[in-house]
Amino acid sequence: xxxNKKKKYFKIWIVFFTATISFSSFADNTYIDDYYIEAKGMxxxxxxxxxxxxxxxxxxQLTYNEVWSALKDMxxxxxxxxxxxxxxxxxxxxxxxxxxxxxxxxAWNREHLWPKSLGFKRKNxxxxxxxxxxxxxxxxxxxxxxNKAFDFGGKPxxxxxxxxxxxxxxxxxxxxxxxxxxAIFYMAVRYEGLDANMPDLFIADDTSTHSxxxxxxxxxxxxxxxxxxxxxxxxxxxxxxxxxxxxxxNPFIDNPQWxxxxxxxxxxx
Length: 269
Hints:
With 269 residues, the protein is of the alpha+beta class. Helix content is 42%, strand content 13%. It is globular, with a radius of gyration of 21 Å.
């Protein structure tokens, strides 16, 4: 029987390629497991303390100008590489239509999910340029959110009615609720007062915020959002880009179960 060598080699190549892809995926998972090896089996305060140490490793402090470039990369519209997807509105908008030197209310700017007025007002502080909690947002919506806590309720925004607000809180659209929560949980774990120029950030279970006080809420609402809106491919891809830019990881995107292991005991549903 005569063997078609081209078909034979093609089949071998397919098997090799498939095995390579599988091995690469396995290697990635192994890397993540090894990255957090010291935290395995922990919970509560011990887990929080260990993740604070792990999450600080390899972190590069970006300049605030570099944040523009990072957000353009991390939030790039997969259907239009010239645009970014704005966080609260979901609108696709030109990367270049920013609020830098532009007073147009439809431009986009850099939103701190943990407001910089609540713990890090200076650009040289680590939290000010930490891209794990920075997002591109519509200028007007960013202004409406201000430094309000995150919670359920309020009236729909005229410009983006899937978001709501009242006098002391802001509720983002459903598809980014979990993203918000995991960014806030990251900030509270990453910054525990161990950095020379950063306070201990704390998540309170209320909506009161006071300029200069490093607290934000509402804890149990954020926990619900985390559980209701799990990590998706967009968030994973954005996270990997953030790691390339900044060097450190958000443990709650890699291991979402750790949010409940640390915070669930403070909430009763």
